[in-house]
Amino acid sequence: MGMAIKRSAQPSDPASGDYYESRPFTELYDEYFDRVNRYLRCRVQSTWDADDLTTVVFLKALEKFDQYSRTSPFASWIFRIAHNTYVDFMRKNRELPVDQEEFLGSEPDDTWQPERQALTNEEIRLLRDRLDLLSQDQKDVLMLRYFADLKISQVAEVLGKSESSIKMISYRGLQKLQKMYERGDSE
Amino acid sequence: MSEKEKYPQDHTDDQTVSQLLTHLKRMRRSVPVNYQLKADLKKQLLERMKELEAQKAQAPTGGQPLWKSRKLLWISCAAMVVALSVGAFLWWSDGAVTINRHEVLALPAEASVEQVDIDGAATQIAYIAQQSELRTIPIDSDTKPVTVKLPPTNGKYVALAWSNKGNQIAVVEQAGQLSRLWIVEMPTAYSTGSSRLLKEEEGVAYGSPSWSQHDDSIAYTRSKGGNDEIWVSSTISYQEWKLAEGSQPEWSPDGRFLAFRKAGAVQVMEMRTGLIAMLGQGQWASWRSEQELTYTQPDGQLMEANVADEPFVTKELPLRNPYTAELIRGNWAANGKQILLVLRENQPQELVISLASR
User: Fold this and answer.
1) Is the CATH number of domain A20-98 1.10.340.30?
2) Which sequence spans correspond to the domains of chain A?
């Protein structure tokens, strides 16, 4: 199993055409846990659920790690698992959109970053409400793009769409958000 | 992620979009990460990894996808079929002795089975023709046939044996009560060949000469008054001595053993200790290697034995012989792969010489 391989070299650049992810599972976990956890905390209402989903994602990833080809970015692979896990969760729970108060964390957590303070709760609530007004595709794309911090090509891989399609959805989603900002609405 | 990619070119100068993207970025950063979960989950994953490794060690293919398992199954089946085919082929071609060239030579029925021999390199066969000629038959294409006139005799030449180096042939002449052992130097590109008398004795019959490892002595059968003895004559000093009671001596390639026939059975003597072991009823022992030898049973069955085994074990060596002729003698070349077979044909009555290999 590849996870037993103890190599710590960074993967080669995907643009070079000979991309190869040689790092073991534990190193990839260390790198990607934060992004997956943040992404799921953004997408589901309960932080408890988000953390449970994060656990599920990495357990699934470990079981399927033999199937990861290593010639494509690990980010695309892990977020495809994360996104599918999220979609399954939503189907089963018919969850309501994230409540902003809970989303921003009423739980005591010493890992809050200072930047949080730069964005007022009101501003974030407003942004969140506006994101909820987007179509599901637009939400998926913008969430993966700006909350999971994936590249266009990686978002395309996660959602199984073409890059041009993702660019279009992203563009229209941002345009819609822009108009909401200009109008100042969040209904 | 590059800034160019992150912010579409058409909107970079748009203040609203810029503000929006800044908000998104800040929003992402503001989402807390559960580091306690990160540490706990890592422990859980490490334990699971150990379990998976253990499962994998117990059942190496258990974790394979179904299509891989099927593929492996097919590959295994195919490999098994190939292995069986190769095994059968090896059993057929390597396990048994198969005649490749039948009737290379035919000798009159009254001829001696000792009148023909194969050289150590398996390049040619020598035989006695017309009572007083030594002829060779090439086996490979690089060797040319040779005819050597033996010393004139009023008797006949009855036996011959190639030296290990292949440059000499020991020849036995029987002329009335007189028996002679000759050494014939075979002609080369630089010499015409010659004969020299090694030993002469009256009232005895010599036979079945066999060269020692370094061609410095010849063992032979000396028969007198119905008794068979094995004697050795040095080709250098002309010394001679009796070795054992028996006949048909055959040195092993390394000189450690001498196989011979006594009381109808093939026996092997270890030269260092003089210990003798009996292999079984038969005749005409021939060494295939330093430890393996074969001999012919009275019923024509080829037998093989390995003197490295304690005690000696003999077993049948299958001979794929589609012809009716019965095997009398098998004589291995030094390479241990080719064997000269002397067979007796009844219709018409003659000795048939064939080449076989294992």
Assistant:
1) no
2) 20-98, 120-187
Nearest-CB residue to B28 (from A3, A4, A149) = A149
Question: Using CB atoms, which residue from B28, B49, B56 is nearest to A146?
Answer: B28
Give the list of residues 6+ apart from residue A36 with CB closer than 8 angstroms, or none.
A54, A57, A58, A78, A79, A82, A148
Q: Would the CATH topology of A20-98 be identical to that of A120-187? A: no
CA distance to partner chain A, nearest, from residue B17 (Å): 6
DSSP 8-state class, residue B7: S
With an 8 Å Cβ cutoff, the interface of chain B facing chain A consists of 1, 5, 8, 11, 14, 16-17, 19-21, 23-35, 37-38, 41-42, 44-46, 48-49, 52-53, 56, 63, 65
Interface touch A113/B27, C-beta < 8 Å: no
CB contact set of B159 (below 8 Å; sequence gap of 6+): B112, B114, B115, B171, B172, B206, B207, B208, B209
CATH superfamily of domain region B104-357: YVTN repeat-like/Quinoprotein amine dehydrogenase (2.130.10.10)
Asked if B30 lies within 8 A of A115 by C-beta distance, the reply is yes
pLDDT tens-place values along chain A, 187 residues long: 333 333 344 565 555 556 778 888 999 999 999 999 988 988 887 888 889 999 999 999 999 888 888 888 899 999 999 999 998 888 877 644 444 444 444 443 433 333 334 455 566 677 777 888 889 889 889 888 888 888 888 899 889 889 899 989 988 888 888 888 777 765 4
Of B27, B45, B48, the CB nearest to A119: B27
One of 1.10.10.10, 2.20.70.10, 1.10.1060.10, 3.40.50.1580 is the CATH number of A120-187, namely 1.10.10.10
A128 lies within 8 A of chain B by CB: yes
Nearest CA in chain A to B20: A178
Interchain CB distance below 8 Å, A25 and B49: yes
Q: Give residue limits of the domains in chain B.
A: 104-357
